[in-house]
Structure formats: structure tokens, C-alpha cells
UniProtKB/TrEMBL annotation:
Protein name listed in UniProt: VWFA domain-containing protein
Pfam families in the cross-refs: VWA_2
Superkingdom of source: Bacteria
Disordered: region residues: 1-26
InterPro entries: VWF_A, vWFA_dom_sf
Domain VWFA: start-end pairs: 86-184
């Protein structure tokens, strides 16, 4: 049987099996972080050392010589990085038709893009081994894709438990986005993760014989629903 081409060829489906644990990177055109306004949510974040407020200082000085009592200061501030919390479904159903390989490639690409944006990343997987925290929240690094490559697959789909863990991580973040990478093949009906700036459900179900559960979950949560780039 002739082998199928990878995702670097637009319009082609990925291989139905990822031999040797290979992961497949999605096309860059089909990949996008949340809207720019959410990528860098500007919030006041004082850092060490005040900054001299020249305008207020000159007003206080008036026409006389500058003295220490005239000095006015303001706190420095910077934009907080957005935390991208990636929740990756590694259950048995994701092993069919190369779904897991494709999802791992999407997660790897997300980490790389977040690293270039100066954002933070956390990575969770859920499947037969339960919920695993593969990358705790921290600055995104391109080397983080190694954690994605090492993900195995199989077993059940503890989605609700994974979201509880994600919620605990995101409770400590001031600006975050949740990425749920799944085929939605579970009977669980978990509640949405709260306190996030944006939630994206990336649907890896069979595009021809899908159950529509990811779309239904996104509608119930008020989240963005994206079809995986098959």
C-alpha cells in the first residue's frame, strides 16, 4: 500500500499510523494562537525599583532649583505573559487513524509558537495512566516539545479529572488560555474551567464519522471550537 504524505503537503491526510511514536506537526497556516489582544493581556505588574516621573517632578519643582523633595516616582509595569495550558487526550480512541500523532504535533507547534511570543506553557495528558503533568507552568521553550514526543497512548478518558488539575494550575495564573486537544469520545460531561481568558477545543474526531461531542462541549462552555487540521 502506498504511503501517504505528511502534513507538509496541503490537502493530504496524515499517515494513519505513527510508526515508532512519531508525531506530526500541523501546517502553520492552520495554526493560530488566540486573538492578539489575548496573547499579551496588558496588566499592571510592578517590578523591582521605581521609575522617576519626570513630568510630575518638574511640576513639583516649579521655577526653583531641583531638590530631593521635588522628586516624584512611579512603579514600572510590564505586560504579563499568557499561560497556555495544553490538555492532551492520549486515550485509546486517539490512537486510531493517527489522531494522537496529529494532536502531539499540534501541541508541539503550540509550544514553539508560544515560545516565540514569550508566553508560558503548561502541559497535561490524560489517558490510561490517569492525568500526568508533563510540563508545570513556566516560560515556553522550544525544547519542551520533547515532553510531547514521549507521550504514549491507550486506556480510558479521564477528562473531568484532567480539567480539575488544569483548574488548580490556572487558579494561580492572572492571564491564561486553555487548549483541550481531544476527539471528545467520552460520556463525561465536565464543567468548563473558570477564570481563563480564552478556551479552545481542538476537535480530533473522525471528520467523516465524528460524534460531534467536541462541538457540543464547546457550545455548552461558550468556548471556541476548531477542527483539527487533518
Amino acid at each position: 500500500m502506498a504511503s501517504k504524505k505528511g502534513l507538509s503537503h496541503p490537502g493530504q491526510r496524515p499517515p494513519t499510523r505513527a510508526a515508532g511514536g512519531r508525531w506530526l506537526a500541523p501546517q502553520s497556516k492552520s495554526f493560530a494562537l488566540p486573538q492578539p489582544s489575548l496573547q499579551r493581556k496588558a496588566q499592571s505588574n510592578p517590578i523591582d525599583g521605581p521609575q522617576l516621573a519626570w513630568q510630575r517632578t518638574l511640576v513639583a519643582k516649579g521655577c526653583g532649583p531641583l531638590a530631593r523633595k521635588h522628586l516624584r516616582f512611579q512603579a514600572l509595569s510590564k505586560s504579563l505573559p499568557l499561560l497556555h495550558c495544553i490538555v492532551l487526550d492520549t486515550s485509546g480512541s486517539m490512537r486510531q487513524d493517527g489522531r494522537l500523532a496529529l494532536a502531539k504535533g499540534f501541541a508541539a507547534r503550540l509550544i514553539e509558537v508560544a515560545a516565540r511570543a514569550g508566553d508560558d506553557v503548561a502541559l497535561l495528558s490524560f489517558g490510561g495512566r490517569g492525568v500526568e503533568l508533563l510540563m508545570p507552568p513556566g516560560p515556553a521553550r522550544a525544547s519542551g516539545v520533547m515532553h510531547v514526543r514521549q507521550c504514549g497512548g491507550g486506556g480510558g478518558t479521564p477528562l473531568a479529572q484532567a480539567l480539575l488539575v488544569a483548574q488548580a494550575l490556572l487558579n494561580k495564573s492572572q492571564s491564561a488560555a486553555l487548549w483541550l486537544l481531544t476527539d471528545g469520545r467520552t460520556l463525561e460531561q465536565p464543567i468548563a474551567v473558570k477564570g481563563v481568558a480564552h478556551t479552545v477545543i481542538v476537535d480530533f474526531d473522525d471528520p467523516k464519522r465524528g460524534l460531534g461531542r467536541c462541538a457540543a462541549l464547546a457550545k455548552r462552555w461558550g468556548a471556541e471550537h476548531r477542527l483539527a487540521p487533518f
